[in-house]
Amino acid sequence: MRLKNKVAIVTGAASGFGAETARMYAREGAKVVIADLNEEGARKVAAEIGSSAVAIRCDVSKRPDVDAAVALAISQFGGVDIVVNNAGYTHKNQPFLNVDEATFDRCFDVNVKAIYHMINAVVPMMRAKKSGCIINVGSTAGIRPRPGLTWYNASKGAANLLTKSLAVELAPDNIRVNVICPVMGDTGMLGDFMGVPDTPENRARFISTIPMGRLSVPSDIANAAVFLASEEASFLTGVELPVDGGRTV
């Protein structure tokens, strides 16, 4: 078990990449806090995992909610060793001038400000014990942007870059910070990313831009998250890891 006796918080873990990451973490021996705005979905995932998981409703853009998730990890499992900032939000694929301010704000609140909140909540305790692992879920959109997703692309570019800056600043405290950059995935946000109906024909058009010929699936991202949290990755920090079937090559 690569994560035995570790405690992790995974945000956006009621479905998709986050849910599969939580499941894999539990199988590898970790205790997991399932944090998601969708409380019912989070509780279902926690119930499926069993006694090594607990769920909490969490709007990651709000500091009190983030603090509550951290407090739950401490009260239930004794601390926080790993954080996966997976929760994400996108606007529908469309011309950038058509995206209203509220949607722009929500993209940056969930994709960037949420990381700010979580970092401030967990770093002091990680510094105290000179150990910690933070994994952000960025996107290939922040490396090789697609048209029609300008503000989403910008938010993920920020997540990718802030990861590297945090990695340098936190390295003396033995806190590692890395970012996973998935290509477009078979998740609930796929239709928004494409901006057209989710039909086989439209999927084929987007899949044709991925050299390995398929969308990402939750297990692709979860496997990367397990590796980056494990001792096998103990000398890796500041890594921007595309999980993308060659999309960003």
From TrEMBL:
Pfam families: adh_short_C2
MF terms in GO: oxidoreductase activity
Keywords on record: Oxidoreductase
Stated name of the protein: SDR family oxidoreductase
The family this protein is said to belong to: Belongs to the short-chain dehydrogenases/reductases (SDR) family.
Keyword Hydrolase: no
Domain of life: Bacteria
Family annotation (CDD domains): BKR_3_SDR_c
